[in-house]
Amino acid sequence: MRRKIVAGNWKMNTTPAEGAELAKAVAAGKKEICDCVNFIVCPPYTHLSEVVRITRGTGVAVGAQDCATEEKGAFTGEVSARMIASLGVEYVILGHSERRQYYGETSETLNRKMRQAYANGLTPIYCVGEKLEEREDGRHFDVVKAQLEEVIYHLTPEQFERLIVAYEPVWAIGTGKTATADQAQEMHAHIRRTLAAKFGATAEQTPILYGGSCKPSNAGELFAKEDVDGGLIGGAALEADSFLQIGKAFLK
Ligand code: PEP
Question: Which position among 98, 105, 130, 168 bears the catalytic label?
Fold first, then answer.
């Protein structure tokens, strides 16, 4: 049985006070939901310490949205994996399409971030996904395969065991357009096959999350698919109620 996971990517939203309220509401609502669904919230760096404190012992885990490529030193503005892990944070999102697109993150950058994440005990949520023109040209499977081969294939088998992958078609992020459940399943199966080609049967256990305008109204259909193990949620994670409803979609 693979883990069922709902992870909220708050992006650059909420003040620390608003984030604390949101974390409290998620933690309170999580109590009503079976432990079989894993909840993760990923607030901005400035909120991490407080959100870890609020969610401790509630079954809600905390992730960061990024980490530095380097261990420490003269890298103004960066936040290291070690700093993040020292707060009690367990996860880190790496390779989000907004980081790839707006901050020029390449596979080379991501290999370095991966190394830092693992060296400090963080579990990466590694994002892959094609742009609209890549799908329209029929290149979506090749693009996602390359994003996996160029980064994930460098992991050791022990590191791979801890990995979470998120498939986020760029054309569906924040646009209100969702991949159909069949499109998601088709790509998730492709991702699992690509991972299995390198890591064998262990890939059967890798949680593969769907991201891209996932909301309470479509989560059930997406999560019912064999290779869709949950969601990485943007906009709908900014309200505790909709985030919790998405988690409950597993239980229907
Ligand atoms: C995301 O950016 O990770 C995401 C899935 O965003 P949204 O749910 O808002 O499309």
Answer: 168
